[in-house]
Amino acid sequence: MTKTIKLLCVLTLGLLISCGGKEEKQKEKIKIGQKPKTEIKKEEPVSTEIPASKRITLDNKGVGKIKSITLDPTIDNAMAERGAALFKTNCTACHKTNKRFIGPNPTGILERRSPEWVMNMILDPKLMTEEDQCAKDLLVEFNGAAMANQNLTEVQAREILEFFRTL
Amino acid sequence: MKKYKFQLLSLFSTLMLLTSCGNNNGQNKSNGALNSNAAEKVYVAPGEHDEFYAFMSGGYSGNLTVYGLPSGRMFKEIPVFSQFPTSGYGYSEETKPMLETSHGFIPWDDSHHPDISQTNGELDGRWIFINGNNTPRIARISLTSFETEEIIEVPNSAGNHSSSFVTDNTEYVVAGTRFSVPIPQRDMPISEYKGNFKGALSFISVDPEHGHMDIKFQILMPGFNYDLSHPGRGKSHGWFFFTTYNTEEANSLLEVNASQNDKDFIAAINWKKIEDYVNNGGGTKMPAKYAHNLYDEATHTATSTIKKEVLTVNPLDIPGAIYFLPTPKSPHGCDVDPSGQYIIGNGKLSADLTVHSFDKMIAAIESKKFDGEAYGIPILKFEDVLAGTVKSGGLGPLHTEFDGKGNAYTTFFISSEVVKWKLDTWEVIDRKPTYYSVGHIMIPGGNSRKPFGKYAIAMNKITKDRYLPVGPEMEHSAQIYDISGEKMELIYDFPTHGEPHYAAGCPAELLAPKAKKIYRLDENKHPYAVKSPDEAKVVRDGKEVHIYMSTIRSHFTPDNIEGVKVGDKVYFHITNHEQDFDVPHGFAMIGQNSSELLVMPGQTKTSVWEPKQEGVWPFYCTDFCSALHQEMQGYVRVSPANSNVELSWSLGD
């Protein structure tokens, strides 16, 4: 038994050493789950499920205190500016407006989500990821990186929403 | 073989001993449980909150611990006078100034007597004060952030023991000296102590709005040892009482030589009178050197200032402001009942408690019935001021608290017990053992005008067999008594951290609703704060490198930094961008000669690292912040001192 362990240790050590590599610019040395080339067939993945970030759930208002929001047809620029400032300090650590980052890119968010859903997500992300299916799926899709509650007021969340409309 | 037999025998006898001890304990416990539903009384169900906060001094830990009553659960250790690697207090650049003194940086002290701020003699829950005993200091701790906000050093004092007690409206927090010393300090023979040393009693004013402390005046008293003190309450508001020992003024073998006099004194000080005197230009300004350290919650940064002068008062210059009340046998505890009428001096070498009457004291002063004087200070006649004596039958009385229902509870160190007795009649109502050698006792609000007389906590000096043994060094034990009935009932026993001397308690609803949950990022005025992640940057200033870094679950911005060189002094200024309750992030750098940092939501803290070797060195978050906590890490590339690697930083690029 102990011999086996010792052997394993030596093997692991060997593995570690070999992983260390000599050259600074080595490419990926770990190859996992790759099938031999001969078996590759050009087939689309079987799953037809759309990832949560691409799903359109405009009818879903989410879970939380925001029940109904009516958006004015014209964007309130002053409000959007305040929202932009809030977004910058409170959200940009995880959300970028030009790409997917820790969390989703909010550009075009209102084509996929209802304004109520967006505000509920900002105001109580914990409740949302517990009770809203879309938020749950997003959490999984984004690597389990739970959204931080930034303790914003309803007014502030509404301003951020207005900013999202400008994106 | 012989040796083996001997070992077996000793093992056997030790076992027997242990077993028999165990049995006794078991009996005690089962008796207690049979008497009542003690377990129910201390049981706070999972998720429920305690009824009271208890703040226990840490003694030689230098800190203050927060407990819940009646559960005895510890919630927090608040670093005060000691460096605290758990949070980085005293290690971070922002908090190092808190531990500055006239002697330089001191990483430790011995904290003794916490006292909660008061208004009209009732707990108001704004701040809690505590004294550093060894290098005399008084600290003020916020009871919204539960963090130390201010520390003031007390010059001319040594062994800051009769401290830090607050007057009825927190006009003053008072600090008395246990050692008398030459004032000013000078080179002189120790044997010339008598008549030459002085005892400084310091009245530190507290700004009613911010709580900022300032030494208003110091009374330079005769060279006795000023042991403990208590402010007058209600009718005696405006007076302060200090117990003394070593009125013999011995400078060696005090164990014998300070116990020669049958009576020492309680010094009664009319501080209102002295306040008037100094407000009208009285007193002498004297050169001194003492640190005043102030933490600013907006900048999350402390500053230390050395003060150069203190106002001293010679008692003889204010006739009628100070009197001595003879009190038997080296009195230790000095306690005043909620009405302010009774001043209790516990002669620690006596079996009895001496209770002085404030009314009788005033009458004796008015009729000038003096029994002599000490260094020009009038001594009142013992019989003229005595209200009564509690004949308890216990040994070594130390401290007394009150329940607000006409009862007093006095601890007896030598006979290990708490004695409940009645004010006015002095009759003993009940006595219960403590385990073991009790020092202070605390009833929430029990030294104020409005006690909450439900629980009393005895803080013991000796633990011995109360808990599972953990080697020679043990935490001290405390016992909770239910004092709501006629008889006291021991309901719980719990270990305390450090050596709690005294404690202060208050109802939970006084503090819980206003306890701070986060620091607002938009109120952060730290000069190195990163208010939004795009402000993150790395700046070189000669050999100093300042890294402006932000954190949120679960990454550092930036997390890859290059261009640091061997010999640089690297400052990590870390701002936590979380704005949610209880989401701190930690920071630790490999090989750093410092502690980690815990950065609270919205806060900025700074950690210094001086890389000594080239390489690529990792840092990580030490607080399990999210499911991706283990991914919260980064690297700093350290190049040789003469390298041309440009400063650069990035995240995810």
TrEMBL record, chain A:
Recorded GO MF terms: electron transfer activity; heme binding; metal ion binding
Keyword terms, alphabetized: Heme, Iron, Metal-binding
Signal peptide range in chain numbering: none
Segments forming domain Cytochrome c: 78-167
Gene3D superfamilies recorded: Cytochrome c-like domain
Domain of life of the source: Bacteria
UniProt keyword Iron, yes or no: yes
Species whose genome carries this gene: Ulvibacter litoralis
Short name of one Pfam family: Cytochrom_C
Protein name: Cytochrome c
UniProtKB/TrEMBL annotation, chain B:
Signal sequence, start to end: 1-26
Primary site of residence: other
Keyword terms: Copper, Metal-binding, Signal
Location in or out of the cell: Cell envelope
Pfam families: nos_propeller (PF18764)
An example Gene Ontology CC term for this record: cell envelope
Gene3D superfamilies hit by this protein: Cupredoxins - blue copper proteins, YVTN repeat-like/Quinoprotein amine dehydrogenase
A GO term for molecular function: copper ion binding
Matching NCBIfam families: nitrous_NosZ_Gp
UniProt-recorded name of the protein: Nitrous-oxide reductase
